[in-house]
Amino acid sequence: MPIKDKGTEQLIKDTAKKIFFADGKLHATTQDIADAAGVNRTLVHYYFRSRKLLFEQVTEEAMNELRQMMSDAFTGKQPFKEKLKKLINVFMDQTIAYPYRELFLITETNRYNQEHADQVHDTHTKPFLAEIKEEMDKGNIQVMDPRHYMMNLFALMAYPLLSANLSKSFMKISDHEYHKLMKQRKQLIFDMIYPAK
Amino acid sequence: MPIKDKGTEQLIKDTAKKIFFADGKLHATTQDIADAAGVNRTLVHYYFRSRKLLFEQVTEEAMNELRQMMSDAFTGKQPFKEKLKKLINVFMDQTIAYPYRELFLITETNRYNQEHADQVHDTHTKPFLAEIKEEMDKGNIQVMDPRHYMMNLFALMAYPLLSANLSKSFMKISDHEYHKLMKQRKQLIFDMIYPAK
DNA sequence: TTAATGTTTGACAACTTTGTTAAACAAAGA
DNA sequence: TCTTTGTTTAACAAAGTTGTCAAACATTAA
């Protein structure tokens, strides 16, 4: 009995992620994905049954990665400052590799009148917000609604990479220069969001 | 001779903008647009010749709006602080009305291997960056690469509205509450980016 | 009223994209 | 070897999307 080959299935999924999350080609067809993966398009249907199911699986896994990142960064007993550093480090690395991941999630939920958009089931955000609140009470960070603090953090991390092409055009920055700027942002964001006293 | 009717043409364009920029439905077809506008799909071709030309026109106008906003906010002799307030006010209002406008521009340029993505021809960004630099020299705002400052500003304004559905899910915020948070952000962003001494 | 011009519609053609099927192929156990 | 099971392919079918056309309709000038 032949071993069920995980190779091709994984290849298709990884290629789809590359096209959606890294290249930002949200309008890619199953043919585009198959071509990029170097396989026959029928295999997409063989492994995933339909385009929609492939999309759902990719979406689901991207959501899990997001949750996992939150969980990894915010469990354990290190001080808030260290957790924050870790979060920025991991999320920025992910966003550099996959700048359009959130964009994909957003457009996919917008696509079908956000029926099942609400069931996210994340258990780590609440403790995160609570820790932010504590840190404000301690006087370590600027006082505001912790939800604003969280939005600011993710905005500063995600948006410049998301809008890279637009920003490069407007500010006339070369690819090389832009990359250099992005590398500086981990530290810069930390300093903005957790200022030295 | 009948007057060339600008009504229907404008209606189609406005509807397209509503679907793309406000609803974030980037995969909308010409049929979707025609239905939403309540007109026959053939009219889309009558007025715009092809789907691609409609898209290009919508893209072009969105880019012009962005440039216009920069120009409006950054010409004149008011102090930097006032210009900044004005920019935040106008851009936030635009982004609340059209949260997905930039997202549309980004995905459309990603779609066709960014051939003509570079020709933005914006003349207001450079003076803007220069004014930021001046303000840093005066000690009024935190010293960093002015381009980072600009990216931070736009990130803080655009991202929370862009990712509203995602944020609402993760933080379990209702539509009503989210709207309230967004209204607070004009002031909050100004305070972050131009802190009182 | 009639002619001219612009607008709107439905029917149809062309093309693209998705999904299905049967057959060929490959690997491994009996 | 032969059978079984899983994998890959090409051909085809179905659906969706875009684009064209001729005819109907509306408005205004002559």
TrEMBL record, chains A, B:
> Any idea which UniProt keywords this protein has?
DNA-binding
The answer, when asked if Cell inner membrane is one of the entry's keywords, is: no
Q: Which residues bind DNA?
A: 29-48
One function term, GO molecular function aspect: DNA binding
The HTH tetR-type domain covers: 6-66
Bilayer-crossing residues are none
Gene3D superfamilies per the UniProt record, alphabetical: Tetracycline Repressor, domain 2
Q: Does the keyword ATP-binding apply?
A: no
Q: Tell me what this protein is called.
A: TetR family transcriptional regulator
